[in-house]
Amino acid sequence: MTTRTNAIEVTGLRKSYGDHEVVAGVDLTVAAGTVYALLGPNGAGKTTTVRILSTLLPADAGEARVATYDIRREADQVRKSIGVTGQFSAVDELLTGRENLRLMADLGHLDRRRARSTVEQLLERFRLADSADRRAVTYSGGMKRRLDLAMTLVTRPRLIFLDEPTTGLDPRSRRDLWGIVRELVADGATVFLTTQYLEEADQLADRIGVLDGGRLVAEGTAAELKRLVPGGHLQLQAADSERLAELARQFPEANVNAAALTLRLPHDGSLTTLRRLLADVDDDAVTGLAVRTVDLDDVFLALTDHSTAVHPTPDESSAKVPAA
Question: Which residue, among 98, 92, 76, 194, has the nearest Cα to 154 in the 3D structure?
Fold first, then answer.
């Protein structure tokens, strides 16, 4: 049963289209007042999971409670408790920013006084006050995304689903939206985020799930997931092409381009490992050295590469890696 400290609890969630199982027995828990990021390649089942949890799509099997309500038996209460911002904007471009927000207030049955106050507060909060009376068709992509999220917040939901909310945004607009998400959580909201931007999950999420082929193949904090992939990467820059070729012969497994050689660090990527790796390298051959620790890109590629398998070591038991 969902406790007051959990905003979402899911057990055995399944959804198929014909013979194709899109969501294949997903279990997850999202603590209230946190950001949970669901990562996965295209077609992994992220959007289908969000649609099921927000009652827009029925599950074939499994149980889920959202904001303490059962998504099957108490769907109306779920809808009243959540906000959803999808991949595609819900903004009516023929209306002004203010009119879009007022429309959401009417749909949420807010009384006139509360609606007026809420709309003005959201216009200020999302830096849309100066453009509030312009039609949304004149807004930039970042402005439309901010308006879309503001519309989601008119009824002040405590649980917000953001399905790839920064897709197509430039880096500045993306970071603006990150700031808004942090503010929401600081105010006590819970955010369930799906994204293909690994930096986004690393920056925002308290916990991260990696979905692949409809299955949750790993779950944990960013630090826990990074420990699933050993080592890191070492980049060596050579004095000239001849010495770069010499380094390539020493490290045949490395990737080489015109400027540098990059190889994966084995084991834990510790200083001892690094010294051992470079013991036979001529100091004069190397003009630059950089060590990059494991990031979520490495984790994502390792976990969703079907030609290899990633298994946690005994000290990584806090990161959940279900059997495939």
Answer: 98
Tens place of pLDDT for every residue, the chain, 324 residues?
A: 444 589 999 999 999 999 999 999 999 999 999 999 999 888 889 999 999 999 999 999 999 999 999 999 999 999 999 999 887 778 999 999 999 999 999 998 999 999 999 999 999 989 999 999 999 999 998 899 899 999 999 999 999 999 988 887 888 888 888 998 999 999 999 999 998 888 899 899 999 999 999 999 989 998 888 877 766 777 788 878 788 888 888 888 777 887 787 877 665 556 777 777 777 777 777 888 777 666 777 777 777 776 554 444 333 434 454 433
The CATH number of 232-293 is 3.30.70
Round to whole Å and give the CA distance between 263 and 259. Answer: 14
How far, in Å, CA of 65 to CA of 73, rounded? Answer: 10
List where CATH 3.30.70 sits in the chain: 232-293
Give ranges for CATH 3.40.50.300 in the chain.
6-91+139-226
Q: Phi, psi at residue 249, to the nearest 5°?
A: -70, -35
Using alpha carbons, select from 64, 104, 103 the residue that is nearest to residue 84. 104
Cβ–Cβ < 8 Å for 147, 154? no
CA distance 182 to 193: 12
As given in the structure block, the two tokens for residue 273 are 């490992």
Q: Where are the beta strands (DSSP E) in the chain?
A: 6-17, 20-31, 35-39, 61-66, 69-70, 82-85, 159-163, 190-195, 207-212, 215-220, 232-238, 255-256, 260-265, 286-293
CATH code for the part of the protein at 6-91+139-226? 3.40.50.300
3-state secondary structure of 57: coil
Instruction: Please tell me the distance from the alpha carbon of residue 246 to that of residue 238, in angstroms, as a whole number.
Output: 9
- Hey, is 316 helix, strand or coil? helix
